Each structure stands twice: as C-alpha cells, then as structure tokens.
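ugh finaly. both done.
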Amino acid sequence: MVDAAGLAVRCYAGPWRALAACLFALSRISLPWILWRVLTADDPPITPPLLAEMLLVVWALPGAAAWLIGRAYAARAQADAAALVVERGAQRAVIERDRIAELLVWRIPLPEPGFAVRLDDGRRAPFAIAARDPSPLLSALDPGAARLPLMVWTAARWPAPGWRYFLGRYVLFALFPAAVLFNAHQHIAYGAFLGQYYLMGPGAWLTTAAIYWATLCAYLLLYASACRAMVEAVTLVAARIVPARARAVRRVAERIDQFAFYAGVPVLLALRFAA
C-alpha cells in the first residue's frame, strides 16, 4: 500500500492529458533536433540569437505549458486491496477495488507514465492518473500491471533531481568551457583577454562574456539530451529483456552518463582546438 500521505500524482481529466503529452513530447524531441541543426547547419550557421529563439519556442514554452497543466491537475492518491482514493483539493474520489475491472497502463508514457481505470460496467473512470513512478499504486491494485516492461523501466528511474542539480550541471559547469572559448576569442579578435575591455569598454566585454556563457549553457543542455536518450533507451531494453536487472542497468547507465558529460566536454573542447 502507498503510505498514508499518498503518492503525488497528476489526475488528468478530459483532453488535458493529450494536450500535455503533445506539449511535453514537442519539448523533449526538440532538443535532439536542435542539436542536429547546430551540428549540420552551416549556410547559415545557428547563431547564438537563433539558438536562443529555437530553445524558447520549441523547448521552453511547450515544456512550461505541459508543466502548468500538470500543476493544475496535481493530486494525491492512495491504493490498497480495498480501494483507490484520489484527492485533488477539496475533491475526493473513491473507487472500490471490486469496481475496478482493469487498469489500462498507457503504452506511451507521456507526459508521464500513467494509467486509466476501466470500471465493472465497461466505462472508464472520469480521470486518468500519471506520476513519475505510479508503480506503487499499480502494485497495490494489480501486481501484474506493475510488472509490465514500461512500469519496470519507470520504477528503475532515479528520483527527479532538484534545482541545485540543474544549476550545477548546466549553469556553473558551463563557466569552464565558456571561459576557455571566450579567452580564445578575446585573444584572436582583440589581442588579449582584456582587449575588448580596453578597446570598447566593460559593457561590451561583459556582454560578449555573457553570450559565450549562455551559449555554452544551451550546448550543454543539448549534449545532455543526447546522453539522456541513450540512458533511457538502454534501461528500457533491459526492462524488457532482463527486468530483474533493470535497476542495476540503470545505475551503470547513469554513471556512464555522468562520466560522458563531465569528461566528454573537456575532450570535445580539446578536439575543437585541435581541429
């Protein structure tokens, strides 16, 4: 059974789940597409302003809209052998276990993994439940559904990281490659690290530095999206082939992802200067 506080879920109703799923999918698919455009476009190339516009339009805005829809349908759910209880604000829905004919796990886990409830009269419950990991609810109501490959993959995922993780990974770590490239640019274009500062003033120098920093933050995001796609693909294959080892495969894949990110960036930077 889920603990007394319940599991944080999204309790989608009507077409809102489909809308959130489309927005979330657009947001996530856009990152590999933008990375491909950055690597292949050369006439004209993807400039920093164009990169910022692409990220805003096809990544940030759809992702934020999907998140807001999810927040609007935030709820808490509990389940045991007797009933499924969902509470959203002042609303409370209780579905007795003997009224549940089937749990319909979504084949496509967007915007999150989730499931619908088919009742004993053939109708579906007026809401569907989604969560980062809904397997505790499924285990309490239908252990067989919790053993589906998609749910095994879901249960193997690590908890969602907090804002400090993203700050360190994409903002602070970007200072290193940004400083290296900015220093090279200043020496090539102005003859010294402070060349633009003395020639054009501190405003121009700081603006250029900020552009390099923001651009490297975006590049790290795109690079990480490619690494993340491989981690999720490997874990999903493991969940289908060797479900008992899915968590172990996830741990190894996550460690490789960390190494590829933090060690790969200096390597790519060195190759950039060696080219």
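ok and the 2nd:
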Amino acid sequence: MDSAVRARVGLIIPSSNRLTEPQMQRWAPEDVRVHTTRLRMTGANHVPLAELMPRVVEATLALADAKCDVIVFHCTAASMEAGLSGERSVLQAMAGATTAKVATTATGALAALHALGIHRIALFSPYVSDTHAHEVAFVREAGLEVVGGSCLGLSGGDDYIQVTPEHWLQLAINETPPDADGVFLSCTNIRAPEIIRELESSLDRPVVTSNQAVLWYALRACGISAPVEELGRLFQIEWNGNNGTDTTKISRAVTSRS
C-alpha cells in the first residue's frame, strides 16, 4: 500500500483547529497523505513560543514515526509571534529531532509571497488586534510592506470557523488598497481557500492563504509540482526556492527586491 504513496506531509496544528484537515484532504493529490498531531497552544490554551518548544519537538518526533517527508509547525499566529528569530528557533528545534524537511506556516507563507512577487501586502486575519499586530510586525521584519487589510477581532477558533467564505471575499475586495501587490488571508482555521480564484479574478492580483501556502510549500519540498486549479495562481507557478530549513534565506530574498 505504501508504494502508492508519493509523499507524507505531517502537520502540527492547534487542538481547536477544525478546518485544516478537511481542506488539506480536499486539495492534496490522491497519492499524498496528510497526517496531523495536535497541541493545546492557542486561545485559552495559549503558550508562549519558547515554552512550547519541547512539545513541538515531541510532536515532530511523533510525525517522524509516521515516516513523514516534511513536517510543518502549522499555526500562523504562533509561528510569527516571536519574530524571525523565534521562527528560526522552532525550525532548528524541529530539524534536530528529524531527518525530514521542516517548516512552519510562516516559512510557507513567506515563500509563497516571494514566489508570487508580492512585496506590498493587504493582510487580513480573524484575530484580535494584538495578534494581528504581531503578524504585521513579522512580515515587515521579513522585508515586506503591509499597506492595508484588517482583523476581525475574534477571540478563538469557534468564532473563526463561523466566518463565511463570502465574508472573507467581500472584506478583501472592499479593503484591499490599489497599491497592494496581493492579499494574504492569514489563519489555518478559516474558510479562505474556497474563494481564492474568485478573489484573484476580482482584484486581478494573487492571493495567499495559510493552508494553501503550506500545502504548496510542502508539496514542492517533496518534489511534487501538481497544479491545483482551485487554489489559484500560486499553484500555477514553478518555484526553485530554498528547502525550508532557514527562513532568513527567504526573507533576504524578499528584502532584496525592495
């Protein structure tokens, strides 16, 4: 049976997340398996990134036991909250626990934005203002500009999943400024991938979402370049970026465009 599996993707996700798994199962190629491990790390169970590290390592080891080819710490807010240095520390801890390729949601998002040539971003999220501000600070530290967008101010995953794709679509259409190169709809637990193509058509600009970016990045890390038409322009391009073990290489590449 394993001979029919081309790659295994391991995801470390927040315990409250209910959308990553169905979205990945919907759009991953038939011969790619997606495995998940959950951590209590967000919302009421929030743990600072530095304190979370031993549990991330344990989760990495568990997914390595499942023979995953690439393992992703998959929570946008958590992977960005401590800046580039915090994100690098996560990658280093994970890399020390496995021979698989490792990444975070931040790694995949930055790579996607860079691959699409997006330098000026309209950033939308469901988060409260402090969490949203951490993400704005992270992408700016990585050399990008945040020129618009907004946050919904929602308190946790139960609220995130109630926001309809149509709401995200209209929000981005109405609040993306003309000088934005593209849109980043941030969060792994929102219904954003469903509207990528329609939003790209409406704005005539590329769109990145957390789950879309990580699926694209993980597949490319495994040498798989299968297009997924529903997931927009990102899946129509070839990318020869780095292997996902050093975010500074991505951020330097993005910064060099400024």
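summary for the 2nd one i guess: Residues 242-248, 250-258 have pLDDT under 50 and may be disordered.
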